[in-house]
């Protein structure tokens, strides 16, 4: 993707306004295979050796059940995550797919459909133009189902008889995400919903005659509806309050009622969180099943036999699982699960078991199976942790720090997960890294991260992972606090966290680094812009450096979705806000060492965002390391690339945060 002319002129104008010495800063550039680096020193062999075991940690995530009672999982044994089959607890992992690119979106055909296989998505070099493929487990043959062109396809959904496959695609015009319908016998596909915008399929009715669909506008706005497949007629459902967000949407086993997740008002009263609801239009019966849980429902699943519904609640960054018996909605007894994150939720074909992915702060993803009859938990995978002693891993504590504004007359508090090294700091105080999530509607969780554990144990660095305003999981009012012209209020939260760090006797406020990816990368640049006197160094990964150039250059199918969150650069008042808060246009205020890393094929935040901020900050006379992988996109999914980036980042912290030159 080429740089836009306005962005190029802006960078040139900045360079021309600076002293000649700043303009001619030496750049050491190297190209090795698909990797480009500038000013990144050689990685010491000793550091690579220390990191090796942490980089050989693996995880396993559940994708579903095969017809023969095996569990299909995603795990990595070489460069990328691929599909594997496990047929008994802690049994052999049989690799099913073998690609240089990671496999994603694995969707198994329903057991009663008679189709023995699964659909998966695969792109090229992280460009996210995923094509759908059918894998036949009987013949081990793979067939591409989509056209293989420059379009995005995903969200595959089978009808219960397996005769139809619904999926989302940008194939029609490259901008709108339509819903397509594929006949699995003839493999002929046609667009079904072409209303414009971003659409996805949610669920087929049990008889296969109707399809629940949703139009996504933003994290705060979506519109559900139903398509009659015989006529193609789309009927949108009324949205209480006029605008609301929606999560899952599925037919009840009888095909008449529906279960869905929404933050619509209830009885005229606003709802802060997304709750699980049941509605039978024929009888008018309506029930909020999680009305006594003041947290978001993050997902739910209904068993094929129609006897159970499982759902997950996100309670202050910790996931909790509940299973209800149907149709009475009574919770059933479950085994005690580790405190952490829960994903997957895949019922076995007979409905008697449910496979889940469990993750804690001290253990990577692994697959467990719950027997619903006797509430028994059985571990099905045991992923490697590089031979490390997991008893030395650190779990975080949840802290809340006061920020600049108030709620009901009291200081607003911001949640953060605090990882404190087990060993006391040699100098009495630990250096600190603030790790900011992307999104911005994302949320940081106390998930396992071997890189964090390395910094804690090997470098003695404390890690703080905040959920600044605009994060999901804390109610829709909190989610909206950074929208449009309020964008920099989230940056002020980082300033408040710096204040909090200065008050902690065990933390060294003179040695603070900040890191983040995507929108978190913007937060890194914005934090350096405002707090370079208090932040020693920053690492920006695939980050936004100017919202106007970002919106102009991001892929067209994402542009309106991002405008709904960040604001519309075509509106002069919003453009003025973007100019005011732009790290690119304020690069002269960034006075701390910076490391910028990027994937060349990134369709979300184009690589020009990285190039222009690197050039501008170097023009400011500041040291900048730059790294780009030509075979990656929005993040680094290949093990060798990610390993090299991690090692370079550790070296950057050693030199610019810890003050070491080795």
From TrEMBL:
Q: Which GO terms describe its biological process?
A: proteolysis
InterPro entries from the UniProt entry:
6-blade_b-propeller_TolB-like, AB_hydrolase_fold, Peptidase_S9_cat, Peptidase_S9A, WD40
- MF GO annotations: serine-type endopeptidase activity
Protein's UniProt name: S9 family peptidase
- For whether the record's keyword set contains Protease, the answer is yes
Q: Where is the signal peptide?
A: 1-22
Do you know which PROSITE patterns this protein is assigned to? PROKAR_LIPOPROTEIN
Peptidase S9 prolyl oligopeptidase catalytic domain: which residues?
A: 448-657
Pfam families the UniProt entry points to: PD40 (PF07676), Peptidase_S9 (PF00326)
Q: Which UniProt keywords apply?
A: Hydrolase, Protease, Serine protease, Signal
Q: What Gene3D superfamilies would the database entry show?
A: alpha/beta hydrolase, TolB, C-terminal domain
Give the species: Luteimonas gilva
